[in-house]
UniProtKB/TrEMBL annotation, chains A, B:
InterPro entries: NUDIX_hydrolase-like_dom_sf, NUDIX_hydrolase_dom, WH-like_DNA-bd_sf, WH_DNA-bd_sf, WHD_NrtR. GO terms for molecular function: hydrolase activity. The keyword Hydrolase applies. Coiled coil: none annotated. This is NUDIX hydrolase.
Length: 230, 230
DNA sequence: TCAAAAGTGTTCACTATACACCCATGG
DNA sequence: CCATGGGTGTATAGTGAACACTTTTGA
């Protein structure tokens, strides 16, 4: 029979690791740091930290993300808890992985430098320490699934963006080419974007209209039974 | 700058709680235990336990499930890690929730009794201790999503089953009525079931053909790019 | 004037859904 | 012989995918 004598139970170290995704005109990227501390000094890893006694996991993840990006109010979701016994060579440590989506233009570049962090295109990610490769793999899989059914893509874009940008984003996430006309008519059919009068003239000569994701309109539609689907 | 002095970091108790789903002709059920130990003695809860130092989470979940059901080789998936600071009144404890799907007929009924456990229809589940309600809610949501895209429903059925049974199962999981003809033609279209010559005569006078889920055929189709979808 | 990116509709195949009657059998 | 649950097909609407030309304008 189970006892309630908690003192007999083993305690463990609990870490968090964050997979931080960003997007720019080169494609979908992930933020990694070059460790200047042991173990595995000099190698690339996800950013992480330990859970503090008085924190809940979400708070700890926010703290860790803020330390590297300077951002708060980041989209973030718990991913999975990794528990292989020897995943950390120093001491038994479990790690709760979180993934986050940020507007790559909005983060604090100085903080990134200070932490010897760097954005990597997904296809250029080096071998990571510990089980961080598995974490990244799982995060990519989750992002792909989520992006199809929740409007989380917008978290990766600035407040206003063009249709070609949005399409490239989804092409990066889903890792396949999409048809321009089908994509635009599908997105417009969702009726959750508002087109501004302004154009972005930096990419093409013709210029591309800017759009904004209308969260209120989206939330209202969800209440009415609408399901986002791309 | 982050340090590698692990000894400064806080350690925590790590529990596991299992949401065990089963299905019979009454519907989709969850297995709960009436606690005969403090805290919250006498109230209903999920079955749980603590992670041991030398275990990975999946092993611990298997151990806990086996203790109550007598089964091994159970379908099981990590769900989420719950971390509210005061979720356990005795001591700061995080809990990793797992959900499991079992054939309700195959489990060990004596073990269930010894542990004062009981199967509850989802709609009859009483208020649970701690944050177990949230765990169950999340497990149901996950089960609903997974059941649409992975053939996990069969984990809840005996080795052989009838079409009406299978349909009732999916109706319970998805919580909506399905059309008999559409359901059958969709399922048959997947081409992952084999119909036996045998009939189940226990429910109707006419009898209903028995089917078996052909895992090899399914796995081969997945390799060939097939996607399960119900 | 031309290169480079933006914008715009239609057709077709397929999938999802709605729907009603006959069959087999034990009691 | 009849009540009960098992089994079967078709028509329609909606969604997803393929596909090509015109517009704008800075260089």
């Amino acid at each position: 029979m189970e006892l309630n004598d908690y003192s007999k139970e083993d305690k463990v170290l609990l870490a968090l690791d964050c997979i931080i995704f960003g997007f720019d005109n080169e494609g979908l990227k992930v933020l990694l740091i070059k460790r200047n501390f042991e173990p595995e000094k000099g190698r690339w890893s996800l950013i992480g930290g330990f859970l503090k006694k008085e924190e809940i996991l979400d708070q700890a993840a926010i703290r860790i993300l803020n330390r590297l990006t300077g951002l708060d109010d980041i989209f973030m979701e718990q991913l999975y808890t990794f528990s292989k016994v020897d995943r950390d060579p120093v001491e038994r440590t479990l790690s709760v992985a979180y993934y986050a989506l940020i507007d790559i233009a909005a983060h604090d570049k100085k903080l990134i430098q200070e932490n010897s962090a760097k954005w990597f295109l997904l296809e250029d990610v080096p071998k990571l320490i510990f089980d961080h490769d598995k974490m990244l793999e799982r995060a990519i899989a989750r992002l792909r699934r989520r992006a199809r059914t929740k409007p989380i893509g917008f978290e990766l874009l600035p407040d206003t963006f063009t249709m070609p940008q949005l399409q490239k984003l989804y092409e990066s996430i889903l890792d396949k080419k999409l048809d321009k006309r089908n994509f635009i008519s599908k997105v417009n059919g969702l009726d959750i974007l508002v087109r501004l009068d302004e154009k972005d003239m930096t990419v093409s000569k013709k210029g591309a209209f800017l759009y904004r994701f209308d969260k209120e309109m989206y939330d209202q539609k969800v209440v009415d039974g609408f399901n986002f689907k791309i």
